[in-house]
Q: What sequence folds into this?
């Protein structure tokens, strides 16, 4: 059974894995035996991430690139194939959010979010697929969201992108399943990372952020998730244990999507 979850001999690319959820997922895949390639845009983030991976004994190679730029993606994939020989597992994790009421959001701001959270997974997957098809095997994991299923104020661009990413996941699964390529989504709930830090900041009077209290009331587990909560589900979707799972969005949300919310 343990061999089912082994990633020994595999190469995994995790985009946007200099910190946060991507860093935790990359570390998990490494602990299961994979060699890691990761990217981000900021050189300082890349260098500090390499130190952090090294301190954990993770064999990681870092690539400075912006996933929204097709030419940078092509160059990165070429470099990884040259350096590491193949990509068995792709985790489309890099993502941004802009919390702006729709009526106040500019078209360019909307496009920037969709470019990063939806178009970029298309670009990176498109660059990785040809070799996976040749080798008749591959694992693609798209990092979706509660906003793949639910809306809320100020996140129209993000929800549109993450809803689209759910359907892109199902479409890749449909189109390439015949080549023994599985494409699934991982849908984190509310996770304590830099991306959600503004929603957890202590108020000037020292009280909890209203959103912090709100999310705890909407989560049966009565807590925020941590990036570590995603490690097991990521290894499952990256390993032979999920070879007949395709087009599925695995929500790791402490029960948010199942729960009407605590009575005030
Ligand atoms: P985060 O803390 O903001 O980290 C984002 C990572 O992506 C950083 O490493 C960042 O590095 C990189 N990145 C951003 N834009 C990039 C680009 N254009 N090209 C390459 N790298 C880029 O975010 P997170 O909370 O870990 O979230 C990771 C993923 O999970 C995102 O897709 C997010 O939407 C999703 N998610 C998050 C939560 C949550 O509650 N935190 C829940 C559900 C889903 P650089 O800035 O150096 O590029
Ligand atoms: C927000 C949060 C969420 C989380 C995550 C939930 O502002 O609502 O940032 O969108 O990032 O996507 O699954």
A:
């Amino acid at each position: 059974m343990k061999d089912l979850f082994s990633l020994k001999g595999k190469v995994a690319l995790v985009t946007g894995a200099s910190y946060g959820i991507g860093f935790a997922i990359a570390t998990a895949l490494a602990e299961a035996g994979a060699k890691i390639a990761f990217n981000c845009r900021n050189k300082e983030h890349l260098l500090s991430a390499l130190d952090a991976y090294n301190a954990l004994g993770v064999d990681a190679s870092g690539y400075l690139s912006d996933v929204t730029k097709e030419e940078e993606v092509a160059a990165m994939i070429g470099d990884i194939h040259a350096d590491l020989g193949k990509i068995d597992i792709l985790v489309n994790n890099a993502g941004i959010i802009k919390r702006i009421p729709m009526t106040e959001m500019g078209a360019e701001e909307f496009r920037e979010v969709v470019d990063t959270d939806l178009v970029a997974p298309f670009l990176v997957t498109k660059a990785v697929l040809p070799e996976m098809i040749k080798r008749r095997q591959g694992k693609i994991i798209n990092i979706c969201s509660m906003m793949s299923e639910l809306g809320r104020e100020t996140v129209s661009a993000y929800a549109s992108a993450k809803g689209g990413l759910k359907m892109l996941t199902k479409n890749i699964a449909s189109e390439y399943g015949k080549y023994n390529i599985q494409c699934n989504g991982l849908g984190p709930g509310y996770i304590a990372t830099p991306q959600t830090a503004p929603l957890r900041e202590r108020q000037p009077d020292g009280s909890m952020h209203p959103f912090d209290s709100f999310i705890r009331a909407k989560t049966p587990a009565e807590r925020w998730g941590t990036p570590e909560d995603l490690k097991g589900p990521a290894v499952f979707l990256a390993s032979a244990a999920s070879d007949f799972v395709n087009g599925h969005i695995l929500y790791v949300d402490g029960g948010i999507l199942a729960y009407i919310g605590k009575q005030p």
Q: What stands out?
A: The chain has a mean pLDDT of 97. The two ends are 45 Å apart (CA to CA).
